[in-house]
Design a protein that fits this description.
Layout lengths: L4 E7 L2 H12 L7 H23 L12 E6 L4 E6 L6 H9 L5 H7 L5 H6 L15 E9 L8 E6 L4 E7 L5 E8 L9 H12 L6 E4 L15 E3 L16 H12 L7 E7 L5 E7 L16 E5 L2 E7 L11 E6 L8 H6 L1 H24 L1 H15 L2 H4 L4 H7 L3 E2 L11 H6 L7 E6 L3 H5 L5 H6 L4 E3 L4 H5 L4 E2 L2 E5 L13 H13 L1 H11 L5 E4 L8 E4 L7 H9 L10 E4 L4 H7 L4 H18 L7 H16 L1
Parallel strand pairs: 2-8, 12-14, 16-17, 16-19, 20-22
Antiparallel strand pairs: 1-6, 2-3, 3-7, 4-5, 4-7, 5-6, 8-9, 10-11, 11-14, 12-13, 15-17, 18-19, 21-22
Helix pairs in contact: 1-4, 2-6, 9-10, 9-12, 21-22
InterPro entries: HATPase_C_sf, HATPase_dom, Heat_shock_protein_90_CS, HSP90_C, Hsp90_fam, Hsp90_N, Ribosomal_Su5_D2-typ_SF
Pfam families: HATPase_c_3 (PF13589), HSP90 (PF00183)
Family: Belongs to the heat shock protein 90 family.
Length: 634
C-alpha cells in the first residue's frame, strides 16, 4: 500500500451533510442506482480525458485504451469501480467530493416528491450522483490521480458518510479513479458478479465505453485461484451510430435517462443520420417534464456534441434556438474540427445549416406528437407551452410551423385549459370569417367575463383567451396564420367585416350619428382621462368598456415593462358606450352637468375595473359612488 502524506481531516459542506443523511436514511427502495451513477460519472471522466487529450496527447500516458472496470470481493464485502479517465488532483477531490456547486442539494430536496423510487432517480439530475454510494456503503474510499500529474501526486479520499472526510497524498502509478465501497451489513447482494452484470446491462448498456467485469471461470488444474480475466458486459458502442432498426425502445429510453439525468421516459425521440454535403448523426429527445431551471434563460442547455464519436462538449447551445432549450440529445458531426470551441461554433456556417435542420426535425417531432398522441401533447404543452411561445419572435423562418403547435384557451370551452390549436379554431370559424379573434388579460375568469366578448357571444364567434404573461408579447410577433390575420378584440375600432350584415352596419352608422351630442358631453366630462369617446359596436349587456388604441401597449406589456424597471409610454384608453343600455339612456337625459360628470366618471372607472386595470384615484371613485347611493336612498 502507498505511503500516505499530508493527511488531514476536513468537514463536509452543510448541504452535503443534509444530502448524506438523506441518502443513508431515506432512499432505500431503489438501491442499485448507485452503480448507474458511479458508472455515469466514470464515463464523464473518460469523455473529459478524450477531449483534453486532443490538444495534449501526452495525457494518455501510453494508455489510450479507455475503459471502466467493476469488481467485487465477497469476503471483504467490497465493490470497486475503476476508470482510466481524467482523474482528480487533491484540490479536485476536496472541491468535487466535499462540496456541491450551485446549491445542488437545496434544489434536490425541493424537488423530492416523497416517492422513494422517483426521488432516487433525481440524484443524477442535481450533480450529486457520487453520494449515492452511501446508500449501500458505510465507508467509501477514492484513490485518484489526475492525468498529467506525477505518480507521487495521487490522492486518497475516504469517508464514513458522517460529518467529515479524510484526504491524503499517495503514490498512484496510473491516472484515473478507483472507488472502493465497503458494503453495509445486509448489502452483500451487490458483492456478486451476476447481480452487478444485471445492473450494468439494465442501466449502462448504452455507455459508449467498455465496462468490464471479472470473467467467472474455474481454476486451472494445479492452480489455487484462476488468473484474473476481464470481459466486456455492455454493448460499448455509441447508440446513435447504430441503425435505428437495431435499437430497441428500451435502449433509447435508458440512453435518454443517462444524458438527461431524468427518471421518466421521454415523450418522443428522433434518431437520424444525414449524409451528403453535410454528414452528422443526431438523436433528439422531448422530455416528459420540465427541468427545474427551464425559465432561467442563462442556465446550461444544449446538446452533447461529439466529433467523429469523440466527446467534445456538454451543452453545446449553438445547435438549437433558445425556445427549444428543453430538448435533450446528442449530435455527432464528421465535418467539424476536433478542437472546436464554443466561440468557433458561433461563427461556423456549418453550424447554421445543422441548426436549421435540427430545429425543423424537433418541430416535426412535436407535430407528429400533437397529431398522433394528443393527450401526451397536452402534457407537453402544460410543461413547455410558455417556452414555445418565445418561438415566433426568435425563429422567423419557422413562425407558421411554431404557430401550428401553439395551444390556447377559448370561449369554445369553459375550463380555461389551453387545448385549442389555430387549425381547430379556423375549422370552427363562421362562414365569411377572415380573422382570428383573441383577448388578453391577467386571469381566465377576467377575460372569460369581459364585456369585450358580448358581441361575439351574441353572434357565436369563438375568441381565443390569452392569460399567460408572455401572450401580448407573443401576439406582437404573430400577425397571421394560414392567411388569416389576428385581431385583438379590445384594441382599436372593432370591425367584424363580413360577419356584420349590411343592415347592421347601416344601423350602427345611424346610431353613431344620433349620439354625436352625447359623445361630446362625455368627452368634455372625462377630459384628459381618455383619448377618444365613441359609440360601441361590441356591447350588448354592459354600459361601457375601455378599448386600447391600435398602437398602444396593452396591460400585460405595461406590467412587464414596469416590473423590469423600464419607462412605460403614456397612453390613454378609448371610452366606448352602449347606447341602448338603461344607464346610458339615463346619462343622456341628465341635465345637471356636475351629476353628469360624476356618472360619466363612475362608468369610466367601472369599465377600467372590468378590464382588470387598477383605478388611478380609488378615493374619488368611492366618493362619487357614495354620493350617488345617498341620492338614490333619499
Amino acid at each position: 500500500m502507498s505511503v500516505e502524506t499530508q493527511k488531514e481531516t476536513l468537514g463536509f459542506q452543510t448541504e452535503v451533510k443534509q444530502l448524506l443523511h438523506l441518502m443513508i436514511h431515506s432512499l432505500y427502495s431503489n438501491k442499485e442506482i448507485f452503480l448507474r451513477e458511479l458508472i455515469s460519472n466514470a464515463s464523464d471522466a473518460v469523455d473529459k480525458l478524450r477531449f483534453e487529450a486532443l490538444s495534449k496527447p501526452e495525457l494518455l500516458e501510453g494508455g489510450a485504451e479507455l475503459k471502466i472496470r467493476v469488481s467485487f470481493d465477497k469476503d471483504a464485502k467490497t465493490v470497486t469501480l475503476e476508470d482510466n479517465g481524467i482523474g482528480m488532483s487533491r484540490e479536485d477531490a476536496i472541491t468535487h467530493l466535499g462540496t456541491i456547486a450551485k446549491s445542488g442539494t437545496a434544489d434536490f430536496m425541493k424537488n423530492l416528491s416523497g416517492d422513494q423510487k422517483k426521488d432516487s432517480h433525481l440524484i443524477g439530475q442535481f450533480g450529486v450522483g457520487f453520494y449515492s454510494a452511501f446508500i449501500v456503503a458505510d465507508k467509501v474510499e477514492v484513490f485518484s490521480r489526475r492525468a498529467g500529474l506525477a505518480g507521487s501526486e495521487g490522492v486518497h479520499w475516504s469517508s464514513k458518510g458522517e460529518g467529515e472526510f479524510e484526504i491524503a497524498t499517495i503514490d498512484k502509478a496510473d491516472r484515473g479513479t478507483r472507488i472502493v465501497l465497503h458494503l453495509k451489513d445486509g448489502e452483500d447482494e451487490f458483492a456478486d458478479g451476476w447481480r452487478l452484470r444485471n445492473i450494468v446491462k439494465k442501466y449502462s448498456d448504452h455507455i459508449a465505453l467498455p465496462i468490464e467485469l471479472p470473467k467467472e471461470q474455474a481454476a486451472a488444474e494445479g492452480e489455487e485461484t484462476p488468473a484474473q480475466e476481464w470481459e466486456v458486459v455492455n454493448r460499448a458502442s455509441a447508440l446513435w451510430t447504430r441503425p435505428r432498426t437495431e435499437v430497441k425502445d428500451e435502449e433509447y429510453q435508458e440512453f435518454y435517462k443517462h444524458i438527461a439525468h431524468d427518471y421518466e421516459n421521454p415523450l418522443s425521440w428522433s434518431h437520424n443520420k444525414v449524409e451528403g454535403k453535410l454528414e452528422y448523426s443526431s438523436l433528439l429527445y422531448v422530455p416528459a417534464r420540465a427541468p427545474f431551471d427551464l425559465y432561467q434563460r442563462e442556465a446550461p442547455k444544449g446538446l452533447k456534441l461529439y466529433v467523429q464519436r469523440v466527446f467534445v462538449m456538454d451543452q453545446a447551445e449553438s445547435f438549437l434556438p433558445l425556445y427549444l432549450r428543453f430538448i435533450k440529445g446528442v449530435v455527432d458531426s464528421n465535418d467539424l474540427s476536433l478542437n472546436v470551441s464554443r466561440e468557433i461554433l458561433q461563427k461556423d456556417p456549418i453550424i447554421d445549416s445543422m441548426k436549421s435542420a435540427l430545429t425543423k426535425r424537433v418541430l416535426d417531432m412535436l407535430e407528429k406528437l400533437a397529431k398522433n398522441e394528443p393527450e401526451q401533447y397536452k402534457g407537453f404543452w402544460k410543461n413547455f407551452g410558455q417556452v414555445m411561445k418565445e418561438g415566433p419572435a426568435e425563429d422567423f423562418a419557422n413562425k407558421e410551423k411554431i404557430a401550428g403547435l401553439l395551444r390556447f384557451a377559448s370561449t369554445h370551452g369553459d375550463d380555461g385549459e389551453q387545448v385549442v390549436s389555430l387549425a381547430e379554431y379556423l375549422a370552427r370559424a363562421k362562414e365569411g370569417q377572415d380573422k382570428i379573434y383573441y383577448l388578453t388579460g391577467e386571469t381566465y375568469a377576467q377575460v372569460k367575463n369581459s364585456p369585450h366578448l358580448e358581441v361575439f357571444r351574441k353572434k357565436g364567434i369563438e375568441v381565443l383567451l390569452l392569460t399567460d404573461r408572455i401572450d401580448e408579447w407573443l401576439m406582437s410577433y404573430l400577425s397571421e396564420f394560414d392567411g388569416k390575420t389576428f385581431v385583438d378584440v379590445a384594441r382599436g375600432d372593432l370591425d367584424l367585416g363580413n360577419l356584420d350584415s349590411e343592415e347592421e352596419k347601416k344601423e350602427a352608422e345611424e346610431v353613431a350619428k344620433a349620439k354625436e351630442g352625447l359623445v361630446e358631453r362625455i368627452k368634455a366630462a372625462l377630459g384628459e382621462a381618455v383619448s377618444e369617446v365613441r359609440v360601441s359596436h361590441r356591447l350588448t349587456d354592459s354600459p361601457a368598456i375601455l378599448a386600447i388604441g391600435e398602437q398602444d401597449l396593452g396591460m400585460q406589456m405595461r406590467q412587464i415593462l414596469e416590473a423590469s424597471g423600464q419607462k412605460v409610454p403614456d397612453s390613454k384608453p378609448i371610452f366606448e358606450f352602449n347606447p341602448t343600455h338603461p344607464l346610458i339612456e339615463k346619462l343622456d337625459g341628465e341635465q345637471g352637468e356636475e351629476r353628469f360628470g360624476d356618472l360619466a366618471h363612475i362608468l369610466f372607472d367601472q369599465a377600467a375595473l372590468a378590464a382588470g386595470d387598477s383605478l388611478k384615484d380609488p378615493a374619488a371613485y368611492v366618493s362619487r359612488l357614495n354620493k350617488l347611493l345617498v341620492e338614490l336612498s333619499v
